[in-house]
Amino acid sequence: MVESGQGKPIVVGRIAGLFGVRGWVKVFSHTQPLDNILRYSPWLVLRDGQWLPMKPLAGRIHGKGIVAHLEGCDDRDAAAALVGSDIAIVRSQLPRAAADEVYWADLIGLKVVTLEGVELGVVDHLLETGANDVVVVRGERERLLPYVDQVIREVDLHGGLLRVDWDPEF
């Protein structure tokens, strides 16, 4: 289980399927590049509502995804029990972000306010679209804001605020 004081686990992937008969699993990675997920150990795997530490013993890129073998997962039945589980890490496992960068996980829950002071809601999650990332804001209605300099004007992690140049009517 995750010890208290480590903060909320940061989801970095999901166990998506089985790979072979020796306990390997297919992993959908949220990291960039995809195989960065293999740099973290232990993984926290969500099982029955609890985050359980599991050490990746081996892993590699396979096709468009990742395959991995986890400690204690030595056959297809053990691997099958993990399919659909989120994979997370604790904040302390992440390298320090550069001065002009933030982790997506740090944006979740920030209050979103226009330059004029109009509250739009809070950051629910982000989407990767290819052209640019999109901030999904939940308030009185859902808004999709492009994560570009012209829109995202200030990220104040300490104040819990994302200041945006956005028409509240849009």
Describe the protein.
The chain is mostly beta strands and 170 residues long. The chain folds into two domains: 10-92, Beta Barrel (Elongation Factor Tu (Ef-tu), domain 3), CATH 2.40.30.60; 104-164, PRC-barrel domain (SH3 type barrels, Roll). 5% of the residues lie in helices and 45% in strands. The protein is built from two helices and 13 strands, in the order ββββββαβαββββββ. It has helices spanning 76-80, 104-107, and strands spanning 10-19, 24-29, 43-47, 50-54, 56-62, 65-70, 86-89, 111-114, 119-128, 133-138, 142-146, 152-156, 161-164. Strands 4-3-7-1-2-6-5 form a seven-stranded antiparallel β-sheet. A six-stranded mixed β-sheet has the order 11-10-9-8-13-12. The radius of gyration is 18 Å and the shape is elongated.
The Rg value, from CA coordinates, equals 18 Å
CATH class of the largest domain: Mainly Beta
| CA(first)-CA(last) distance | 43 Å
Give the strand order of the largest sheet, numbering strands 1, 2, ... along the chain.
4-3-7-1-2-6-5
State the CATH superfamily name of the largest domain.
RimM
Which structural class is indicated by helix and strand composition? Answer: mainly beta
Please work out how many helical segments DSSP would assign. 2
Mean pLDDT: 93
| CATH architecture call of the largest domain | Beta Barrel
